[in-house]
Amino acid sequence: MTFPFFGTARDEASRRVAFSGNRIDRQSEARSDDAAERALENPKARLLLFTEGRLLLRVEGENAFYPYFARNEAATFAPDLKQAVLLGHQDETPVLAVLAMADPEALPASVKAIDYRSIYMQGLLEPTALGALAQGAALLAWHAAHRFCGRCGNETTMHDGGYKRHCPTCRRDHFPRTDPVVIMLAIRGEQCLLGRSPHFAPGMISCLAGFVEPGETVEAAVRRETREESDIEIGAVAYHASQPWPFPYSLMIGCYGEAESDTITIDENELEECRWFSRAEVNLMLNSTHPDGYRVPPDGAIANTLIRDWVLAPETL
Ligand SMILES: [Zn+2]
To answer: Are residues 203 and 120 in the same domain?
Structure first.
């Protein structure tokens, strides 16, 4: 099987997924110990304010939101500026992610705290801001979960603008992590394999997925996860697209897998349904017109990109 997906960088599939539009210049080689502190002194600094899995958004009109706050505007929301993370610079302006301690239920009418998933599902932010949200949310979640040293158990401190934690007791440095997840569409001729987890919304069915384990290649993870969940054997594997996924700090790695068997045995701990769908059926699902009410994840989800690009690929593949 050959996939004609080696287009230009401008056309790469990753550009069509949510959270991928980040334009921040991270300047990762120039992060000093006081980088966040100095950035906060810049009057042009823009702050993204996060609270309990939600981002504070300024209401600019009906369904129009703006996510950035100046430092003086942020003061109302009890920002934890000592733990601010410098995401980098965009249009020569520093962008920081800051934990706001304000009660999300007691905000002024001009500001709403909206959870990340709703922000992306409802298209409330433009792609570059959504990308910044993914970067900030992942970093703040990592800091919240790594306050103490994994080696000696003592409290760690933030450095390098939020890109490092250091343990003053055992002198170990700790760096932000990204957890790789494979998400794959298994293909057998004119059919693809989709499954349904019990926690999905009614009618929703999607690609299979799972965490890459230590010591495993992406290809091996695609084969293992597909076998574990459906008992389908995968031969060739092709990478297609990736997606930053801030729940809390994953990277979704989207692949196609060439199925070498077709009898499905469902892992009932993971899935309540898993079956083959024809290209014609999937086309109906993409248009929300499948007679049995099946539908695929929304635009912006990497599963949607994998499924849509397979449906639209020439049938001669
Ligand atoms: Zn330590």
So the answer is: no
* Ligand 1 centroid – CA 248 distance (Å): 24
Distance 167 CA to ligand 1 centre (A): 5
> In this structure, is residue 101 part of a structural domain?
yes
CATH number for position 130: 3.90.79
Residues 219 and 308 in one domain: yes
Is 60 exceeded by the pLDDT of residue 45?
yes
Task: State the Rg of the chain over Cα.
Answer: 22
Which domain range does residue 223 map to? 178-312
Shared domain check, 244 and 131: no
Strand boundaries in the chain, DSSP class E = 46-51, 54-61, 64-66, 68-69, 85-90, 93-99, 111-115, 157-159, 164-166, 173-174, 179-188, 191-196, 208-211, 234-245, 250-259, 273-278
Judgement on whether residues 87 and 203 belong to the same structural domain of the protein: no
Q: How far apart are CA 139 and CA 143, in angstroms?
A: 6
pLDDT band at 7 (very low <50, low <70, confident <90, very high): low
Ligand 1 centre from 153 Cα, in Å? 6
pLDDT(281) > 80: yes
Report CA(143)–ligand 1 centroid distance (Å). Answer: 15
Distance (angstroms) between ligand 1 centre and the Cα of 169 equals 5
Domain count for the chain: 2
Instruction: List residues bridging with 113 in a β-sheet.
Output: 56
- Gap from CA of 142 to ligand 1 centroid (Å): 17
User: How far, in Å, from the CA of 83 to the mean position of ligand 1?
Assistant: 19
pTM above 0.90, yes or no: yes
Q: Strands 93-99, 46-51: parallel, antiparallel or unpaired by DSSP?
A: parallel
Contact, 148 vs 170, CB < 8 A?
no
